[in-house]
Specification:
Structural class: mainly alpha
Strand content: 5-15%
Number of helices: 3
Number of strands: 2
Largest sheet: 2 strands, parallel
Shape: globular
């Protein structure tokens, strides 16, 4: 699937999300795509992961699992930001269980 005039991340992430959601038999709202990188001069991709998980917790979601299919390897920066900082923000906002799943790769 080619999405014109779009950065590589969403062009790859959205088809991955759709395929995974279909394979799991989940509804559109059960698998959420958000972005954690805020780097460089261009407008950042949204929705942001930290704001999304905080809102989920505030909306009463108690348990979530997060994975990063946009990465080809287990990036230490991502592991720290997602498994550490974002997990803490989710719990602080009222969430109970936060699971960071390893990348879907061979490493």
């Amino acid at each position: 699937v080619m999405v014109p005039k779009m950065r590589p991340a969403p062009r790859l992430v959205y088809p991955c999300r759709r395929l995974l959601r279909e394979r799991l038999g989940w509804s559109e709202d059960r698998l959420i795509t958000c972005f954690q990188s805020r780097f460089g001069p261009k407008e950042w991709l949204q929705p942001f992961t930290d704001e999304t998980v905080k809102q989920l917790a505030e909306d009463g979601v108690k348990d979530i699992a997060v994975f990063n299919p946009g990465f080809i390897s287990d990036c230490l920066e991502t592991l720290e930001e997602i498994a550490g900082e974002v997990a803490g923000e989710f719990i602080e906002a009222g969430g109970r269980n936060f699971a960071h799943l390893p990348c879907l790769n061979d490493t």
